[in-house]
Amino acid sequence: MPRTRKKPINKFLLLLTFCLMATVLWGCGAIVEPELSDMATPEPTVEPEKHVKVTFQVNVPSGTAADLPVYLHVIDDVTGISFNAVTYEVPRVTGDKFVVHINVPINSLVKYRYSLGGRQYERNIMDEVVTYRCVHAYQQTIIEDTVVSWEGYDSYDGNYGRVNGLAYSTEGEPIEGLIVTIAGMETRTDENGFYQFEVVPIGIHNLVAYSKDGSYRVFQQLATVGTLLETKANLLLDPAALVRVVFILDTPEDELAGLPVRMIGNFSQFGGGEALQWGGVNVAAAAAPMMARGEDGRYRLDVILPVGAEVHYKYTLGDAFWSAEQQQSSHYVTRKLFVPAYDTVIEESVESWNISEFGSISIIATVPEPLNQGGVWIQYKFIDWMEPIPMWQVDDQTWFSVLTSPLQFFGSVTYRYCLDGDCDMTPEVNPDGYLIQRNLELLPEIQNVQDEVYGWRVIEE
Predict the structure, then answer these.
(1) What is the pLDDT of residues 258-289, one digit of tens each?
(2) pLDDT tens digit string along 289-304?
(3) Which residue segment(s) compose the domain that 299 sits in?
(4) How many domains does the chain have?
(5) List of residues 6+ apart from 138 with CB closer than 8 A
(6) Shortest CA distance to 440 belongs to which of 363, 386, 388, 365?
(7) Angle at Cα 286 formed by Cα 280 and Cα 291, nearest 5°?
(8) Does residue 66 lie within any of the structural domains?
(9) Which of 240, 264, 282 is the last residue of a domain?
(10) pTM listed for this prediction
(11) 3-class state of residue 406 by DSSP
(12) Which residues pair with 187 in a beta bridge?
């Protein structure tokens, strides 16, 4: 069995661990902050956020079970596609056609998908579970979708065509890395701005393109696909103006005060825009920026953001799911900001890192030898393995992390260590060379867990 020692947390050890981390991450000097006097602090919102109605009309495959409801799930693209979705039942209007009307913030990029009975998600023409579709709600809109198959149903065997094109900015430059979506599928443009979907069901589809850093305004148009025909859909996107946004954060005065805080969100400035990762997330904690902690104990992050962008984000001690901020009113917190057309300061506070009945956990891993690169990562399991999280280095052989949320869903937590975030290729092993996973029982009191890692298995590709 893996060697794990559990005991009530030693606050001196926790403070010592953080001090070592702070020396590595930030140095011992005070943080020098730029002058903020020329920046606006937003006043409390008086008028409600403007919304617009979006009508979703969806045709489902013939043979769809008549006794199961069809649902529309508006996903949380930060927490993960399987978590924190807002779900609407879609009433049947006739035969295989269902319609629902919802109100969303104007100019929002809505990511959504359909399910049958809340469990059988739609599959696309490639027989893959749809992660999300997109609609840009810049005005009152009617979207017509076609579900070609459900999980557990036969794959689509109808007619199809091809969609491709070039993406250019209005300044005449090709756009590389643009995310393009159609019919529950996604691709990205290459260095020449070219994209292609080899197989798209026939019919009229909503085609949406957006940049992972928001540097271009969202593009949306209808694309008509004919049987075995090639549809050319060139994309012309306007660059967005940029402004400076300063986030200032207060955190709870508890045993976790002073630990490193990341800001994680849907744009690449916050670790977002990645391809789908373990556990259905497309934000990467390792790419999310660290906030700087000042002498007054407040955290700060300066970011350049595009005007009008819809930023979804949260504050975390881990990633977007594990050890992220919580509120008593909800299991998950995902904040939203429409970037204004001027430099601004956003002052916020974390209500809690842990709303469960269980105590938070500090985890210290001792590794067998100093590491030259990559670092040690920790990976938790929730039904399946989730995206690994980088640990904080204390010294050559000691690594540190905390687990604070969402503990309310568990009685115990399964986890393992790996190198450089690649838990398939470099997982930890026991002294006999076998792969291992660890289990941690949650307790009402705060815990300090100290693990010894025996070695690593390096699997050659």
Answers:
(1) 999 999 999 999 999 876 665 567 788 999 99
(2) 999 999 999 999 999 9
(3) 242-349
(4) 4
(5) 52, 106, 107, 218, 220
(6) 363
(7) 120
(8) yes
(9) 240
(10) 0.89
(11) coil
(12) 180
